[in-house]
Specification:
There is one protein chain. This protein has 231 residues and is mainly α. 81% of the residues lie in helices and 0% in strands.
Length: 231
């Protein structure tokens, strides 16, 4: 779930790109040994990487022409594939009786809030309440996914790539909700607090999410390599 207009320094840009590339790199290494859950998560990272690149190209172009930064419409578009792909990954894990209605309900709630806020405020302003709806839905769904994995495997946390992946997504989405719900208010009334919280989410939660996913992919790759070399 991405936040407002991106204007990052070189260090922030480097760390964010590094975390995304690490996840993609280890995901490609482990791809043949992944199930559909992890393959969809890898696709989500790749899609975000493409959007992230476009965002910075647009921002640099606008800065070079002394234009106001306007990339929030692209962030709004990105909400749809990000939410859809994260929920699609969970679709391959949760059982149908409870899981499928939960996933469909979460996505429909997101689409409803996305449409209502976009209709009322326009798509040139970041649709933060749609982001909140997506975060809440994903948090609920991935709590169920984590519980499902916990019931089906006796592996401890540090040996379970599924649990690491879920933990990263849960921490990011759940912890983003308080800030994202107030971001437009903070932009006007407390710009310094808004900037601090934005970078906290971008530099800590977002990077942590992709680092944990990279760790999960690496664990899958190493487990497969170990089995290959075991006589």
């Amino acid at each position: 779930m991405s936040t407002h207009t991106i204007q990052t320094g070189m260090l922030t840009l480097f760390t964010e790109i590094s975390c995304i590339l690490l996840a993609v790199f280890f995901g490609i290494l482990a791809f043949r040994n992944m199930n559909r859950f992890f393959r969809v998560l890898l696709l989500q990272v790749a899609v975000w990487g493409v959007f992230y690149g476009f965002l910075h190209v647009i921002t640099l172009q606008q800065q070079s022409q002394d234009l106001p930064i306007d990339n929030q419409w692209l962030m709004n578009i990105h909400l749809i594939p990000e939410t859809g792909l994260l929920l699609a990954a969970a679709w391959f894990v949760l059982p149908g009786i409870v899981g499928k209605p939960l996933i469909v309900g979460a996505f429909l709630l997101f689409l409803a809030v996305f449409g209502i806020q976009g209709w009322n405020q326009g798509f040139g302003i970041y649709l933060n309440y749609a982001d909140v709806a997506a975060c809440l839905g994903i948090t609920l769904v991935y709590a169920a996914v984590l519980y499902h994995f916990g019931q089906r495997t006796d592996k401890r946390l540090w040996r379970s790539p599924e649990k690491w992946a879920c933990l990263g997504i849960l921490l990011y989405c759940a912890c983003s909700v308080p800030y994202v719900s107030m971001m437009h208010y903070l932009e006007v009334n407390s710009p310094k607090v808004n900037t601090f919280l934005y970078y906290l989410i971008s530099n800590v939660l977002a990077n942590g999410r992709y680092l944990l996913l990279a760790l999960a992919f690496l664990m899958i790759y190493r487990a497969a390599a170990k089995q290959t070399h075991t006589p």
